[in-house]
Design a protein that fits this description.
Strand order of the largest sheet: 7-6-9-10-12
Structural class: alpha+beta
Order of helices and strands: HHHHEEEEEEEEEEEEHEEEEEEE
CATH class of the largest domain: Alpha Beta
Largest sheet: 5 strands, antiparallel
CATH topology of the largest domain: Nuclear Transport Factor 2, Chain: A
Distance between the termini: 135 Å
Number of domains: 3
Low-confidence stretches: 29-39
Helix content: 25-40%
Strand content: 35-45%
CATH architecture of the largest domain: Roll
């Protein structure tokens, strides 16, 4: 009888110990689940996964995580290398959760982009659980930001290293946020220095304005053609070289050889207007050396004089070839 009571006592004691151990395990498991859920599956987890997709250049994954609607626009920056470039200088990212209210929360990303501090706010929503215990948060969805690139007179621009169409000099380029959008252009004839803008808000509307400039090769070609035209004028041994902007009138008899020399060449200044290159009026100076005889006294003397001149010109572009057409007024001038 005593043995039965003792056995029953030990059994109850063992059961109690097992129950206490189970409760301890459950408590520890609860703490672990809570900790893992908070650190690995909290609201910021969705934002972190989205930013990782941007760094990977995986636009499809980023778009799926963001749940954003895609407005009309050029999608070049939404994938691949242009996307990677948009976040290449995104550093020091710190995510904080605020305004948590039941199934909704706000995650703020603090970071530096191109060396400047910035923030992007992400609304997130609890969409259920995964693995029975862990919260599954999703970005609440919004509309993608866009940047308007204007490039008057051109039909293309280069944005984050990729060529995008710019009908009538205008392109609407979609991007993610945060992002750097850098636009510019350079070919054999036209260049536009790069300009950048930072997209920080999911609904941002940014703008980048480009201005066409001639390349050094174009300026050099125009300058060379103007030089050759004036040198050809100076080689004519007459007082009024044909088709040239400089000349000299004299009431005396010219008795010596006529020699012209260009003492100051024009400095061409080009501009791009209404889809065509224009050149500002060109001005310079030529020096004349010759001998003349006074018709009244019969005295011959050496003549040295200078002639300031100016003329206009038009620029013709055929493929990669630039041709200058001088427009000269004066004695025996043509054009």
């Amino acid at each position: 009888m005593g043995r039965a009571i003792d056995t029953d006592h030990r059994l109850r004691r063992a059961t109690l110990l097992w129950a206490l151990a189970l409760l301890a395990v459950l408590a520890i498991a609860g703490v672990v689940v809570t900790t893992v859920n908070a650190r690995g599956y909290g609201p910021e987890h969705a934002v972190r996964a989205y930013l990782d997709a941007l760094h990977d250049g995986d636009g499809s994954r980023a778009l799926g995580l963001l749940g954003a609607t895609v407005p009309a626009g050029d999608p070049t920056l939404l994938t691949g290398e242009p996307l990677k470039r948009s976040v290449a200088k995104l550093k020091d990212v710190d995510l904080t959760v605020s305004d948590r209210n039941g199934e909704d929360a706000t995650v703020t990303a603090h970071y530096t982009l191109d060396g400047r501090a910035g923030t992007t706010v992400f609304p997130v929503h609890r969409a259920g659980v995964t693995w029975l215990f862990f919260d599954r948060w999703e970005l609440a969805g919004t509309s993608l930001p866009h940047t308007t690139v204007t490039f008057p007179g051109q039909d293309r621009a280069r944005v984050n290293g990729a060529t995008v169409a710019a009908p009538k000099g205008r392109a609407t380029v979609l991007s993610f946020a945060p992002a750097t959008v850098t636009a510019g252009w350079s070919d054999k004839l036209v260049q536009a220095p790069e300009h950048s803008t930072t997209v920080s808000g999911l609904g941002d509307a940014r703008a980048v304005a480009l201005a066409a400039q001639p390349t050094p090769a174009v300026v050099s070609s125009v300058d060379d053609q103007v030089h050759r035209m004036l040198d050809a004028c100076a080689s004519q041994q007459v007082l009024a070289p044909a088709g040239c902007p400089f000349y000299h009138f004299s009431d005396n008899l010219i008795t010596g050889p006529v020699s012209w020399r260009i003492t100051r060449y024009p400095q061409p200044a080009l501009a791009y207007r209404d889809g065509a290159w224009t050149v500002q009026p060109l001005s310079g100076q030529a020096a004349l050396s010759t001998k003349e005889t006074d018709l009244y006294t019969g005295v011959e003397r050496q003549l040295h004089t200078t002639s300031d001149f100016s003329f206009t010109a038009t620029i013709e572009v055929d493929g990669d070839t630039v041709t200058v057409h001088p427009r000269v007024t004066g004695p025996d001038a043509t054009g």
